[in-house]
## 1
Amino acid sequence: MRTVYVNGAYVPENEATVSVFDRGFLFGDGIYEVAAVVGGKLIDFPAHTARLHRSANELGMRFTVSDEELLAIHRELISRNGVDEGVVYLQMTRGAIDRDFMFDTEKLTPTLVLFTQNRPLVDTGVAKAGMKIVSIPDLRWGRCDIKTVQLLYPSLGKMEAKSRGADDAWMVRDGVVTEGTSNNAFIVTQEGAIVTRPLSPSILPGITRAALMDYSAVSGTPVEEREFTIEEARNAAEAFITSASVFVGPVVSIDGVELSGGKPGPVTLGLRKQYIEESLKRAI
Ligand code: PDD
C-alpha cells in the first residue's frame, strides 16, 4: 500500500481524507502538477514548481508551502514508496468551506495532496510502437494555460479516441491543432524542422515542450513555433507528443492516415533520446 501526503501528514492511502466541502471536489477549484521520476530522481522539478506558482497566481489562490518543503515532500514520498521510475502527482485546491459560488480566499486554507505512481517511463510500449491519434473539437474553457483539475473533457476525449481504435486525441479549435488531451502536439516537416503552436491561453505551457525546444536549439534542430492544421499534420514526415509522463511520444497515425510508415520516425526517436539524456543530467 502506498503512503500519500495530505495537508502535512504522511498516511496510508486508505486512511487519507479530504473534506466533502473541498472546492476542488465541488467546483474543480484546484490545480495540479505531474513530475516524472527516473532512477529515483525528479525530472524538470524547478519548472514544475514555477508553473504551480503561476497557476495559483492566475486563480488568486493562496500558496502556503515553500518550494523547499515541496521538494522535501516529493523526495519523502519517492523514498517511502520506493519509486525508481514513475510520477509524483501534486494537487492543490483553494480549500474547504460550505458550498457557495462566492468565496473569500483569505478565509480558506489550501488543501495539498501528493501521491506517487510507479510505472515504466523510459522503456515503454508507446516509445516502441508509437501512438494512433484521432482529432476531436477542442471544447474546453478559455484558460487552458492554467493547469486546473477540470479534466472532464480531456478524459472524455481519451475515451472517444479509445472507442475509435486510437490511443489519444489531438484537439482542434478554429481550424488548427491546439494540443493533445494531456500533452503538447508537434509535427516534423519533410525538411526536418519541428513545428509546434505558440503559447497562448489555448494551451498548457508544457514543461517537456519547453525543455525539448531548448535542447533542440542547442543541437541545431530547426524549431518553428507556428500553428498547423490536422491536414498539415497528416502530411507531415513525423509527429509526436510531449508530456512529463511520456516524455517524447511518437505518433504513427492521425485520423487513420499513417505517418513515417506507421513506425516511430527517426527525428522523433532522436529527440526522445536527447530529451531523456539531457533531463537525466539535470534530475534532482
Ligand atoms: N498532462 N497539455 C495538457 C493539456 C496537459 O495536461 C499536459 C500534461 C501537457 C504537457 O505538459 P508537461 O510537459 O508539463 O507535462 C500539455 C499531465 C502529464 C497529466 O495531466 O497527467
## 2
Amino acid sequence: MSQESASAANFIRNQLRDELESGQGASIVTRFPPEPNGFLHVGHAKSICLNFGLAEQFGGVCHLRFDDTNPEKEEQVYIDAIKEDIQWLGFEWGGDVRFASDYFDTLYEWAQHLVREGKAYVDDLNAEQMREYRGTLTEPGKPSPHRERSVEENLDLLDRMRKGEFAEGEKSLRAKIDMAAPNINLRDPVLYRIRHARHHQTGDAWKIYPSYDFTHGQSDALEGVTHSICTLEFEDHRPLYEWFLANLPVPNTPRQIEFARLNLNYTVTSKRKLKLLVDQNIVDGWDDPRMPTISGMRRRGYTPASIRKFCDMIGVARAASVVDIHMLYHAIRSDLEDNAPRAMCVMKPLKVVLTNWDADREEVFEVPGHPARDDMGMRKLPMTKTLWIDQDDFMEEPPKKFFRLAPGKEVRLRNTYIIRCDEVIKNDAGDVVELHCSVDYDTLGKNPEDRKVKGVIHWVSETHGVPIEVRNYDNLFQVESPDKDKDIDFLEHLNPDSLEVCQAIGEPALAEARAEDRFQFERVGYFCADRYALDEGKRVFNRTVSLKDGWAKAQKKG
Ligand code: ATP
Ligand code: MG
C-alpha cells in the first residue's frame, strides 16, 4: 500500500471493534464537547474525526455538547461557528445540539445529594488558601477548617450560594474525598464556584456554576454516552470522573479513554493563543487563512476531505508527538491534484509583444480543464499580439541550466507555439519592461526537428486576461515550536513574510470563478477564490499550498 492511502493505527477504533465483536455493549455513543470560548482548530478536527468517525463507522451516534460552564468566556458567535465547522467537515450530530447547562438542575440536585451523604461541604477558603491547604505532589494536603460542617449547615449555605447571597470567591462547594490522596485531583476538588455572571444559555438563573470535573462525566452519563474520548491531560482526572459516577445516582456508566492531542509544528493550537492573535489584530480574524482554525483552513482552500484524510493519516495513539505540517500540505495537495481544474495565472506580469503577429489577430486554443479528468471539459485560451508572462520566466543573463526565456533563446508558450526573444526593452531605470518576441508558426503541437526547446512557460493574453489579487500565505511562525520556550513570548516567532500580496493576471476562465472555487495555477500552486472577496466586489485568490511536495519527497527518500 502506498504511504498515501495508508491510514495510520487507531487504538481506540481497534478497541471498539473488539468490544462490539465480542458482544460487550450493543452500540456506541460518543460525544464532541467543545467549550464555546473560541473557534475550532486543527486539533479539534482530530477529535471530531475520531468521535464522529467512530460513530459513523460502528453505526452509533456522536453528540455535539457544548461544555458551557464558564459563562464569562463563552459567546454565541463561537457556538454558531463551531456548528458550522462540524457540518462543513461533513459530520452530523445525533439529536439536538446539547449543552452541559441543560443539566444544571440535575447537577445541583446531585450536589445536594453528595452533601446529604456527607460527601461534599461548603468551604470558606479562598483560592489562594485552598492552594496552600492542597499540599504538593510529595506532601499530603491538610483538611480545611470547614470540612466538618453539618449536613444542615452545608445545605443551607449551598442554597444561599445559589441565591447569590455571597460574593464571588467567598465560598465554594467541594467534594469530601481525601486530602492525602496521591492524585491531587482527589484532594477535595471544587464542585461549584460563585459567579455573578450572565450565562449565554441560562441567563441570570444561576449565581453558581459547576466545575468542569463535576459536569463532564455526569453529562456523559445523562446522555447515555458509552465512550468518553478525551485528550491525555484528563488522564489524571479519570479517578475523579469515576468517583462521581460511583457516588451519584447516574443512569449509566460511560468510560473515559484518553489519546494524545495533535501538535503540529510551525503552529500553535491553543484557543487562548489563537484568540490573542485575533484580539491583537495580528491576523484578520479567527478565519484568517493563516490560522490553524477549521474556518481558516476552509478560507485558505482546504477541502473537508483533505482534513479528514489528514486526520486519518496521523492516526490515534497514546504517545504524544509532533506532526510535520508538510503532512497536512500533502493531504490537501493530493486532493487538489486530482480535483482542481487547471488555469494559467501570471503572478508578476512582464509584457511580451509578438512582432510577427497581426494586431487584430486572435487565435483560440481549446485545452482540457484537467489533464486526467474528461468530466471537467475544455477551456478556451485566446492568444493575441500582446501577452503577459511571469517576470521569473525571463532572465537577461541566464545561468547555464535556465530553460526559460532569455535574449536570443526560445521557449514554448504552454499549449501553443514556440517563441524567440529578439529584443529586450528597458525603462530609464534600466528595468526590463517588455520583450519583443517572434513566433515560430511551425511548432503548434510539434517540436522543431533541427533544435531542442526544453522550456514551457505559462502566459495570458493582455486583451483577455483577468486582473486578480493573489494572496500567498506562508507559515504564521518561523520556528518549529513557537510556544516551546516558557521564557519567550510565542509572538516573537511570528513570520514577517506570512502574507505576500500580488496583483496578478489570470486566464479568462477565472472571471467566472465563484467563492471557494479551487484551481491549480499551472507551474505555481493551488489557489482558492476567497469566500468573502466577491461580495466586496474584489477578485481574490488565496494560495492554499504550493506545488512542491516536501513531505512526499522525504517519504520516498525514507
Ligand atoms: P485548547 O487547549 O485549544 O483551548 P480545549 O481542549 O480547551 O482546547 P475544548 O473546547 O475543551 O478545547 O476541546 C473540545 C475537545 O477537543 C476536547 O475533547 C479536547 O480534548 C479536544 N481537543 C482540543 N485540542 C485538541 C488537540 N490539539 N488534539 C486533539 N484533540 C483536541
Ligand atoms: Mg477544554
